Every structure is written in C-alpha cells, then in structure tokens.
Amino acid sequence: MATPLEPFDYVVFGATGDLTMRKLLPALYWRYRDGQMPKGARVIGTARSALDDAAFRDRARDALGKFIKPADLDPAQLAEFLDMVFYVSLDGAKADADWSAMKAVFADAPPERVRVFYLATSPELYGDICRNLSDQGLVTPAARVVLEKPIGHDLESARQINDSVGQYFAETQIFRIDHYLGKETVQNLIALRFANPVFERLWDSDAISSVQITAAETVGVESRAAYYDHSGALRDMIQNHLLQVMCLVAMEPPASLASEDVHIEKLKVLHALKPITPGDVGQVVVRGQYASGEMDGKPVPGYVEELGHDSNTETFVALRAEVHSWRWGSVPFYLRSGKRLPNKVSEIVITFRRPPWSIFPNLSEPNKLVIRLQPEEGIELSIMSKDPTPDGMTLRPADIDISFEKAFGRRYPDAYERLLMDTVRGDSVLFMRRAEVEAAWTWVQPILDAWKHGSPKPYKAGTWGPEAARAMLDADNRRWHEDMG
Ligand SMILES: NC(=O)C1=CN([C@@H]2O[C@H](COP(=O)(O)OP(=O)(O)OC[C@H]3O[C@@H](n4cnc5c(N)ncnc54)[C@H](OP(=O)(O)O)[C@@H]3O)[C@@H](O)[C@H]2O)C=CC1
Ligand SMILES: O=C1O[C@H](COP(=O)(O)O)[C@@H](O)[C@H](O)[C@H]1O
Fold first, then answer.
1. Are 462 and 299 in contact (CB under 8 A)?
2. pTM of the model
C-alpha cells in the first residue's frame, strides 16, 4: 500500500475532455484503490458543459469502465471513489462567469488543506484561468497549479503563458507536467545511471558512440485531430517528452535528488545543445506525414484523409542532436517520434564503441544497451558471446534481458498516478521548470521557422517513417535500432 496523503482537493479544468477521462480519472481511481487518496479528499471536475454531479459521475464511471480492466474495478470501491467526485459547470477562462459554485466548494476548507488546480485545457486558457482563480480569492499558499504540455505553441507564446501564470502563482506552486517523466522506467534511468557504477563509468563519449531515443506509436490522430493539426510531432512529443528523456540520459550526476539539483543539471543539457541553424534543418531534421497504408494487415487512411483537408502538419520527426559538453563531445543523439509506425515502443538505445583492436575476425556488432520505457519495461544488454560450436571461435550477439515487471512482480503504475500525487505532496522533481520549457522551445524554434516553407515527406502508414530518416543515419554510417543486427 502506498503512503496515504492528507485529505486534499483536486480541481480539474477540462474535466469532460479526453485527458481527464483517459488518464486523470483512472490515475486518481488507482491512487484511491491503493489507499493513497484518503477519505475526505475531493476531485472536482469543471468545464463549460452543463452537467451536475450525477451526470459527471456517470461519465466518470463509463471512462473507468473503459480504461481500467474489469478485474481491477471492484464495484464497492468504485462507488466509494465516485462519491468523492463532484462537478462544477463553469467557463473558467471568463472573468464575468458565475464563480459562486466553485467558491462554495472551498468555503469551509481550512487554509492549510492542499488544493490543486489541474489545467487540462488548451494552453491559451491557462493565463485567464489563473487570473480568475486569483481574482476569486482561490489561490492560497497551499494552492498549486498544474500545466499540461505543450506549454505554448512556440517560444514567444510559452513566455507569455509563463509570464501570465507567474503573476498569480509562485514558481514553486507551478507544476509543468510531462508525463514521460512519471514513467517508472524513465525514473529508473536515474537509478540505472547513478546507482550502478558499472554503467556510469562508461557513460561518455569515450565509451558511447551514439544514442537513439524513439517514441513510436501505432495510432493515428483519431479524435484529437483538431488539436494535433495545430501541433504536430515536434511540438507534441519532441519539444517536451523526448528532450526531457534526453536530459536524463545526458545530464551530469546531480548533487542530490532534490528538485533544484536535478533541474539545474537538466537545464545545463538543454543549454549545451548544439544550436540548429535554419541552414542545418534539411540535413539534421526529417519531417514526415503518414499516407494511407496498412496496420496489422488492415488498410488505414492517410493523415489528410482522416483530417478531411490538406495539411502540412508533421506526424513524424527524426533529428540528430549533439550535446556540446566534455562528457559528450560530438556523440550524436538521434531523436525520433511518429504516429502510424509499425510498433508502439518507447526506448533508449545506447550504442557503445567497438574495441580499439579486435582479435576476432568476425566481431560485427558493438555492445548495445536498450532501455525499454514501454511496453515490457526493462533493459537489454547486447554483448558478443562465443557461439557454442566445436568449430573454432565464432562470435554472436547474445542478450542479457531484464524485465522489470517480472523482476519486481507487481503492476507498473501509470505515469499520471505518480505525478498527480507529487503535485499534492508538492514535490516538483519530476516536473519541468520554466527555464527548461523555454530552453527547449529556444532550441526547436529554428526548426519551426524553417518549416514555414516546404512540406513533410510522406511515408506509408505501418512503416518506420520517410526514407530520409534512414538516409540521415546512413550518412553517419549508422542504423536505426530496428535495422541493427
Ligand atoms: N489527451 C491527451 O492524451 C493529452 C492531452 N494533453 C494536453 O491536455 C490538455 C487537454 O487535452 P484534451 O483533454 O485532449 O482536450 P479536449 O479537447 O478533449 O478537452 C478540452 C477540455 O477543456 C474544456 N474547456 C474548453 N474550454 C473551457 C473553458 N473556457 N473553461 C473550462 N473548460 C473548458 C472542454 O470542455 P467544455 O467544452 O465542456 O468546456 C474539455 O473538457 C491540452 O493542453 C493537451 O495538449 C497532454 C498530453 C496528452
Ligand atoms: O503527450 C502525448 O503523449 C502521447 C503518447 O504517450 P505514451 O505515454 O502513450 O507514449 C501521444 O499519443 C500524444 O499525441 C501526446 O500528446
């Protein structure tokens, strides 16, 4: 059982939306089920839709039925959880809306009771919602605000959002969520590197020749087309999730696990990224968009067919980054993310250098460490071994494969479970600081600027992106993981 928290209030703006139904409510249910969400805690959903508590609970029940396995949904526990869920109909972005019902929720709440305002809405509303919360007297010292990613659309809008939210909440009260940081295996990266000298001693450009970070999805844009078409893979995945994971791979050992110490080291990585100039973009960044193809043997439409109109939005990005520091020199970090790729897989692949001299005629493959973030979380170390034949010394790659789920024999909590509870605890180590968000936007901005011209390269749904992604690695004499031996 997880450590129970003191009773708290969790207010979710955007409560009728996809994120709340698919991720936030299931995460809160699990925390309740594990005994972490105590009796007396409240979840207050809010959105413009005219619903009452009962109607919202019906939606929540449906969502939990859809996103949690029946075996994990005990009817009595479900009923108890839903009793803790309430709804306030409100246009949170409007100053002249009727805030009385929301204020009534907090009328008797003691000042020290933690209240979290989770903004699961479009980022353009963040500033207005925060101003209104403040004007209505709801921002107490024990209040926190959680901002969903992406924070803004570009560097300029990110700065504006951070400025406006910062007028009403102190930086220590602001939790910029990136759910990749809540994934157990991403957190385990810190343990892998800094609790195991066997890896950390080899964690530099002397031993490592390249790093690949991939987040591949099989899904298309589906019901999120309206959001996605204004975003694209660079803003949706690379600017936040993949750069954050890269920071944890590349950062120096922090002085401690305290939030400030970890943020300082991540920020140094973002500042050390070799800038991409507009002239570089064509060489080091590939943007693609899926065309019709096949997934699991079934035909699927292309992106523009799903959308119903032409679009230059990218559904695939592959890029080559460098962290210009003493540790990394010019080691390439290849980052890649896309929709309608052959497998759902998020992984980090560390490829080590070959021995300086080989006494074996057929030493073909370098050592490789694969950190599987999902699915089947674990690590796999590929080493060269002697083929057990009596015919001399033939070498073959063999894997040391550790599945975390098998090793620990327990369910892997969803990233949101950990992160939501961290916001209540006030622990911001797994969140992004303003400076990190803006440094990440600063780095991707030249790519966004260059992409105002030209179009993405098409790739067939069910393939690993445009041929140019492979060609980019060919030019470096390297291969993507799926093409390695
Ligand atoms: N869905 C996902 O998987 C992920 C989403 N995110 C981010 O989370 C945020 C929400 O995404 P998602 O749930 O997909 O979006 P949806 O479009 O599904 O939901 C948006 C929600 O905002 C509400 N809303 C709109 N305007 C207002 C307003 N003025 N006041 C109060 N509520 C309002 C809508 O309800 P109503 O119309 O009733 O007001 C709805 O509940 C976005 O920033 C997105 O980028 C981040 C990671 C993953
Ligand atoms: O933030 C987002 O992440 C999901 C992918 O998350 P994962 O945990 O399933 O890897 C992505 O589908 C979505 O477009 C994006 O907004």
1. no
2. 0.95
Q: Both tokens of residue 364?
A: 């073909």
Ligand 1 within 6 A of 12 CB?
no
Q: How far is the CA of 237 from the centre of ligand 2 (A)?
A: 7
Sign of CA dihedral 48, 54, 60, 66: negative
pLDDT band at 287 (very low <50, low <70, confident <90, very high): very high
Which residues are CB-neighbours of 266 under 8 A, at least 6 positions away? Answer: 244, 247, 248, 251, 436
Query: For ligand 1, is residue 122 a contact (CB within 6 Å)?
Result: yes
Q: Give, using CA atoms, the residue closest to atom 13 of ligand 2.
A: 236
Q: What domains does the chain contain, in order, with CATH numbers?
A: 9-148 (3.40.50.720), 181-410+434-483 (3.30.360.10)
C-beta separation of 215 from 320 below 8 A = no
pLDDT tens digits, one per residue of 223-243: 888 889 999 999 999 999 999
Instruction: Determine whether the shortest distance from the Cβ of 18 to ligand 1 is under 6 A.
Output: yes
Interface pTM, i.e. ipTM: 0.97
CB 232 within 8 A of CB 170: no
